[in-house]
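ERR on first pass: missing label on line 2. Operator R.T. fixed the label and resubmitted. Corrected input:
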Amino acid sequence: MTEWEYHPSPGIDASMTETLRNFPREPTMLAYAVRSIAALILRGWMRIYHRMQVEGREHFPQSGSYVLVCNHTSHLDTMCLLYSVPLRQIHRTFPAAAVDYFFSSLPRSAVSAILINALPFDRKVKGAESLTVCSELLKNDGNVLIIFPEGTRTTTGEMARFRSGIGRLVVGTDLPVVPCYLSGGVDAWPKGKIFPRPRRLRLRVGKPRTFGHLEKNADSVKAICSELEKHVTKLDRSSA
Amino acid sequence: MSIDAALNSSIFLNYLVIVGILLAVAGILLTIMSLLGKNVSSAWSSYRGWLVMAPIVMGTIFLGRSATIIGITLLAIFGFREFARATGLYTDWLLTGTAYIGIALLGIVAQAIDPRLHGLGWYGMFMALPVYVIGAILLVPILRNRSKGQLQQVALAIVGFVYFGWMFSHLGFLANTPHAYGYLLYLIFAVEINDIAAFTCGKLFGRHKLRENISPNKTLEGSLGAVAISMLIPWLVSFSFPHFDPLHLILAGLIVGVGGQLGDLVISYIKRDIGIKDMGSVIRGHGGILDRVDSMIFVVPIFFHMVRWFHGSA
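pass 2 clean. output:
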C-alpha cells in the first residue's frame, strides 16, 4: 500500500499576528465567509447611512489587474472604494494599508486582514519591499490594488502631494491606473472622531490611464505622480 | 445554566475559587523557582496561556447555556480547521465546508429544544447527525465526478468531523443537563489536572517509555501516576455531582485518567504521521487549539454516555 502524502499549510507554525500580517495571504474559507458577510453589510450601510453615489463605474477595467488611486480624507475612503468594486471581486481587492497603523495590534490586524483584506504596506522603513509585493500581486490576473498616494489622511480637506510610490509601481508597465475622487469624506468622518456622521458621499471614477510608454526613471515617476494628481483633482472640479 | 444560576450555584463558585487558588499558587511557585535560579521560561509561557484561557472558559460558562454551546462549537470548528490545515485537507473547500456546516449544525441541534420531548437539546438529532454529514461528505467526489485522491480526502474529512467535531461537541451538549456546572467544570478541570499530573509524574519517576514510536517523552510511570491522581479527583470534588454513587465516582476518575492520555496519544500519532510538531500556534506556550483540547476529545463522549446510562437524561 502506498503511503498517504500530507501537505500541511506552509503557515502552520506562524502565530496569529504573523498569519494576519503575512502577505500574500493564504485563502481561508472562514475568512472569505466573514469578509463576504461584512461586504454585504457595508453595502447596505453605505447606501442607507451615507446615501453613497458612484459615478463612472463603467471606467473600471473589465479584465486584468488594475490600480485604484484616490484622495484620502478619512477611513471611509477605503469603505467607499470597496463598496464601488463589484462584489465578486471583493476577495481580490487589496487596499494598501500602513503597517504601523493597521497592523499594530492583534485586533486591528484581524479587522484589516479579514474584513478589509488590506495589504500591509510599510510606508516608513521598507517602502521598496512593499512596492515589490504590490507589483507581484498585480502580475496575477484580476487583482485590484487600492492606493492612497498621499500616504495619510488629510486634516485640512486639501489634497496633499502624491508620494512617489504609485509612480514607481506603474512606470513602464501597462497596468491601468484608475483615478477616483471622493467628496464628502472629511465632513462624514473627520480624523479623530470615533464614529462617522450620516453625510452624503460621492465617488467619481475617472478614465483609466497607463504609463507603459514612459521610461523607468525619476523624471517619469514625478510626471506620473503629477499627472494622476491633476486627474484626481479634475474629478473634484467637474462636480462643482 | 444562566448568569443567575451561575451566581446561585455553589458548584460554579467552588470551582471559581479552586481555579483562582491554583493559578495563584502556581504563580507563586514559579516565581520562587525563578528566584532560585531555575530555568522556568517555558513554564512561564504556558502559565501565561492559562491566565488567558481560565477566565475565558469560566466567563463563557458563567454566561450560560447558549454561550457555552456556541463557545464549544467555535472551538470544534477552529479545531477542525487546524486538523484540515495540518493534513492538507484545507485546500479542498467543498469537503472542509461540508464538515464546517456539519459542526455548526451540531451546535444548532445542541442549542435547540427537542421537538418531541420538549427538553433542552435535540438529543436524537445530535446522535443521528453524523449519518447525514458523513453521507454528504461521501457525496462530494460524486458531485465533482472525480476519483483521484478522493478516498484520502474523504477519509480525512470524516475523521476530522467525527473526532474533532462530533465527539468534542458532546461537551456542549452537556450544558443541557441539570448538572451542567458540575459535569462541565469537572471535565475541564480534571482533564487538565490529568495532563499536568502525567507530565509531573513522568518528570519525577519516569523510567519506562510508554509508546516510544508515538510520543517519546511519555512514560509508563507518568501515565500510571496520572491515572492514580485522576481517580482521586472525583472524590475531592464530589460536590460537583451529589447524585453519584461510589461506582460513578470511580468511573468518572477512570474515564478521565485513561481517556485523557489516549486523546493525547491520538493527536501525537496524527502529528507524527504528518510530520509536524504542533497542530497550530494560536495559544502561546501551548501550541494550537487541538494541542490543548486533545485529551478532552476522548473523555467527553465516554463520560457523557456514562452519566446518561446511569442517570437517564444525564
